[in-house]
Every structure is written in structure tokens, then in C-alpha cells.
Amino acid sequence: MTEATTTPSVLFVCVHNAGRSQMAAGFLRSIAGDRIEVRSAGSMPADRINPIAVDAMAEFGIDITAEAPKVLTTEAVQASDVVITMGCGDACPFFPGKRYEDWVLDDPAGQGIEAVRPIRDDIRARIERLVAELV
What we know:
36% of the residues lie in helices and 16% in strands.
């Protein structure tokens, strides 16, 4: 963030941009509103969002059905103040001056709702802490 008046921006990156990063982006949009700019991307994006992740978020009244997995670009990293990775390893470009965090979270791919709920809840708690730090 270059100025106090600049809206901070966060980029969530996971491999498929279909589960963890989409849930994180959904929570951040819901909790922070327009106080934080939200992006998400994947190093190898899936064809569609994980339907179980959609269902898990719907339990909180957050609709992520309109989202689509997006490919990670250098531009998205450059445009973000905070880059949060979730299991994509070294696929994310590194730029000095950015805040990087790696959130170790289970991959919800192929799991049922009972297994995805704790992942979702962990993401929500992390997002609440992130919002408290950034706004």
C-alpha cells in the first residue's frame, strides 16, 4: 500500500482456483466489502469451481456460483499488496515489497461437505484476522 488512502488488495492463489482460494475470496468480499480489493487465481485452474465449496459457502449465505477459476498472472501478483498462497508451492512469482503468506490448508477437491466444512471454517478465521490487520 503506497498511501494511507489506498485500498489494500489481496490475491489468493491455489493450484486449481476452485476451492480454497475461491472460499477465501468469498469470505473476504463478504467481511471486508469494498474496504479491500479481492483477487484469486490458480497455477493450473480447473474448469469450474468445486460444487462442494459452493455448498459450504452457501451455508454462510455467501454465493460464489458466479465465480470462475482464473489463471495466475504476473500482473495479478504485481497489482496486489498481499499474496496468500494455499498449496501452489513455487508457482507464484515473487516481487520485493509484497507481503506473502502461505496458508497450509487441506485441499477440498474430491471431498464431501463434512470434510470441507472445517477447511472453510479455518479459512473464515484466517480472513477475519487478515481483515483486522488490513483495515
